[in-house]
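From: lab user (bench 3)
To: helpdesk
Subject: output format question, protein + 3,4-dihydroxyphenylalanine

Hello, I'm new to running complex predictions and I'm not sure whether the block I got back is the full result or only part of it. Here's what I submitted:
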Amino acid sequence: MREQLEALRDDAIEKIEQAQEKKVVQEIRVKYLGKKGPVTEVLRGMGKLSPEERPVIGQLANDVREAIGKAIESKMEALEQAEIHRKLQEETIDVTLPGRPILKGGAHPLTATITEVEDLFIGLGFSVAEGPQIETDYYNFEALNLPKDHPARDMQDSFYFTDELLLRTQTSPVQARTMEKYKGKGPIKIICPGKVFRRDDDDATHSHQFMQIEGLYVDHGVRMSDLKGVLQAFAKSFFGEERSIRLRPSFFPFTEPSVEVDVSCGICHGDGCRVCKQTGWIEILGAGMVHPRVLEMSGFNPNEYSGFAFGMGVERLAMLKYGIDDIRHFYTNDRRFLAQFKRV
Ligand code: DAH
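Helpdesk reply: Thanks, we reran it on our side. This is the complete output you should expect:
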């Protein structure tokens, strides 16, 4: 019996040592130490032993169980350790490898320009309004004092869907739409950025699609000096504190009087150069006092209210500010061009 038990022990321990998986070790545990296992089996035959032998064999059987149990335990631990080690090896990060560069994008220069202008006017108490790009003839022209067959319509040749529906040629229709919403009661202080469309041939300074920002202020007693003050604040903030503006008489059907606004040339500071065509001034926008007819058509009493309006081209502003010489750069998405504006 003694030999039997010792053989069992050696056999089990050898198998445990050879085992490479926890599952196999578990099976050995069941096989050797389970209720139907060989050790139990041997112990069952104890009845046949002499009373002197019994405790000796009993003790040996316990020792064998214990030895097998210990071997299983330490093997399990070793396998566990090995598994952890393997996992760690597999998941090791080689911190000495150079990282992959993270390509950072940035706002498109037109978006950045609009955001800058918006921030400035919001600071002056304006809010941002928007209107549809597919516009009715009424809002795009008629409500702005441009009746059908008005010669000034020729300046803004458009893309028509029907006689009454077109791609808007300017952001000015948002003026009329907003005034209607206010139902004759001011104040209104809005700027309206957005896309506009014209039947133009594309070249370095023209595009059939571009962006404008419209401004409108309607209240009791709004005067031309208010317009000048606001535009001066805008020009200095956008182009630089040292720049100044001047107002030249002009014509727009929706304003009276109308002006064109120039900013002093940032290259020659007024002496005259190629950029300002030797005038010292560069045109940046159109503006004026809202025509009484326009106020009236949109539900405001011109005897009670007055207002100013202005409209500027976003591409033109960006081109002047950043020295861009071709409007088409904005739309062709050449990364070498766009990457220059990452921090704008
Ligand atoms: N809508 C004009 C254009 O596209 C720009 C403009 C001029 C807007 C004068 C105005 C304004 O609101 O008062 O040429």
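A quick orientation on your result: The mean pLDDT is 91. Let us know if anything else is unclear.
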